[in-house]
Structure formats: structure tokens, C-alpha cells
Specification:
Layout lengths: L6 H15 L12 H10 L5 H14 L3 H5 L3 H8 L5 H18 L8 H4 L7 H12 L8 H10 L8 H11 L5 H14 L18 H10 L1
Helix pairs in contact: 2-3, 2-8, 5-6, 9-10, 9-11
Amino acid sequence: MPQKLTKPERFKAVIAWFEKNMPVAETELKYKSPYELIVAVILSAQCTDKRVNMITPPFFKHFPSVEILAKSNEEEVFELIRSCSYPNNKTKHLLGMARMLTDKFSGQVPSEIETLQQLPGVGRKTANVIASVAFDLPAMAVDTHVHRVSARIGLTYRAKNPLETERQLVKYIPESKLSIAHHWLILHGRYVCIARKPKCTECGLKDWCRYFTSEKQGKD
């Protein structure tokens, strides 16, 4: 391993490690259709996937299609999602999303990132998730895990926001690997490179990690 890695070398090493050690990486949200996925992703904002997966089965039993959801009301929706974070806002987003899909898109979830962002409750991150997970399109969704882990490892440098992180990542990650790389970084951040006390000693990426190298040098 070189003493000072170039950006392409770091990306190449990190991608190679993930390919070997995490060949399968998928969303932990449970869904069966683009409609179910977009609901789950809207609910997942600042909420754990575990909690969302508890909410969605009764939700989809009550609202099995976007058309049925679109005809509902805030009281019905709120009652089913009240245990997630920000249920008031998410109730409005879910109903607005369903009604726009029904009115403008014949009830079909669009695959284009720019079009998806027209829907209530769908920002760039959510749009990228839908595009990559539901439609297998090359897109890099950046949540808090991806933003944090990319900076720590050294894949990004001084990225001030998720959009800057996304732009730096897509510059070096091959297009064919963008979708799985999103899951690699999320899962790594969720279980290893956690926010407060990253598990550096058990991390397989420590040899190429800028954070680990700087911490180690500081203790020497």
C-alpha cells in the first residue's frame, strides 16, 4: 500500500474491498413495487428502516395502490404512520405524492430523477434511491451515512452538502457500480463506521481510510 494514496487509488482499493466482502448489498426497506418503495423511502427520512418496515405492512394493507391512497385523508394516513418521525409532514407528503402520481402520471411512478423531484416529499436523495433501486438506473443517493462515511474514508474532501458529496463520488465510481456503492456506504455507515464511535479496529477499510490513518498518527 502506498504511503499517500491518490484519489483514484483510494477509490479503486475501497471498491475492490467492497466487491470482495460485500458482493450483495441492497436496501433494507421492504417493498414489492415502485409505489411501495416511494412510500417507504418518504417514511424513512430521519427514521430507521426497522421502524418503517413495521409501519408499511398495515399501511399497504389499508392502501394497496396509489389510487386508493390518493382518495384517502390526513386522519387515516396519520393514524397508520404516527409512530414514525415527523408524521404530520409525512402524511401531507404521502397524500400529495399519491394525488400527483394519479393526476399527472396515470398512477405510475416515473423513473427520471428530475421528474421524481416534482413529487411532494421527494428530494434529490429520495429520487436517486427510487431511480437506482426500483429502476436499476445509475444514481448515487447521498444520505447522512453516505455523506459521513465518504468524508471519513477520504473519498470526498470538504463536501459541504449531499450534492457536493454526490458530485465527488460519481466522478470516480464507475457508472455501473453507482447503485451498489450507495448501499455499500450506507450499510458500512450503519453498522461499522457509525457516527459517534466508529468501529475502526474491526473495519476492513482501515488501511485505506484517511480518518483511521490520521487517528493512528495522532496517537503515535
